[in-house]
């Protein structure tokens, strides 16, 4: 084998390895979630899922003594009951989007090990005039001594 053929073969091997590493990195870092409709179509007990949807209004039940949290996620077509042990993120709430990681149980609910609350990408400045109580409360939280002027 001539030196140029060896150089070409080595270059192709390195190029193929780089292409594979890029492909593997992209497919492993892509994170998808399924909807409640997709889960209900073919649930597999014990399989790990990432489930996303909107928290149904009126479905959140929280027991601070036991840290048990129950709620339902919906995609507008179907809803799935979810149970979690622990506290929810600050942005979690009824009518908001959430993605939960966990597994489907044989008892007919999704057992979440982690909750990720979705939030809006739009910043909305607080409304109010300097005379409003909400405006004074905002200023009070921003000042070190806690008094609004």
Low-confidence stretches: none
Largest sheet descriptor: 5 strands, mixed, barrel
CATH topology of the domain at 36-117: OB fold (Dihydrolipoamide Acetyltransferase, E2P)
Percent strand: 25-35%
User: Largest sheet, order of strands side by side?
Assistant: 1-3-4-6-5
Q: Please trace the helix and strand order, writing H or E for each element.
A: HHEEEEEEH
Structural class: alpha+beta
How far apart are the termini? 85 Å
Secondary structure tally, helices: 3
CATH class of the domain at 36-117: Mainly Beta
In round numbers, the mean pLDDT is 82
Overall geometry: flat
For CATH, the homologous superfamily of the domain at 36-117 is named as Nucleic acid-binding proteins
Could you tell me the number of beta strands?
6
Radius of gyration in whole Å, from Cα?
25 Å
Question: At CATH's second level, what is the architecture of the domain at 36-117?
Answer: Beta Barrel
Q: What share of residues is helical?
A: 25-40%
Explained architecture:
- With 149 residues, the protein is of the alpha+beta class.
- It has a domain at 36-117: OB fold (Dihydrolipoamide Acetyltransferase, E2P), CATH 2.40.50.
- The protein has helices at residues 3-29, 36-41, 133-142, and strands spanning 48-55, 61-63, 68-74, 79-85, 97-104, 110-117.
- Strands 1-3-4-6-5 form a 5-stranded mixed barrel.
- It is flat.
Search tags:
149 residues; alpha+beta; OB fold (Dihydrolipoamide Acetyltransferase, E2P); 3 helices
Helices and strands, with pairings:
Elements: H1 3-29, H2 36-41, E1 48-55, E2 61-63, E3 68-74, E4 79-85, E5 97-104, E6 110-117, H3 133-142
Parallel strand pairs: 4-6
Antiparallel strand pairs: 1-3, 1-5, 2-3, 3-4, 5-6
């Amino acid at each position: 084998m001539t030196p140029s053929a060896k150089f070409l073969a080595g270059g192709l091997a390195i190029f193929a390895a780089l292409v594979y590493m890029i492909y593997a990195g992209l497919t492993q870092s892509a994170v998808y979630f399924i909807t409640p409709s997709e889960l209900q179509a073919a649930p597999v007990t014990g399989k790990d899922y990432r489930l996303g949807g909107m928290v149904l209004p009126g479905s959140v039940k929280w027991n601070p003594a036991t840290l048990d949290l129950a709620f339902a996620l919906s995609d507008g077509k179907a809803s799935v009951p979810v149970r979690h042990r622990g506290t929810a993120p600050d942005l979690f709430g009824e009518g908001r989007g959430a993605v939960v990681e966990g597994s489907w149980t044989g008892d007919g609910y999704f057992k979440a090990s982690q909750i990720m609350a979705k939030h809006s990408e739009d910043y909305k400045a607080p409304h109010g005039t300097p005379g409003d109580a909400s405006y004074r409360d905002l200023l009070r939280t921003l000042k070190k001594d806690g008094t609004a002027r």
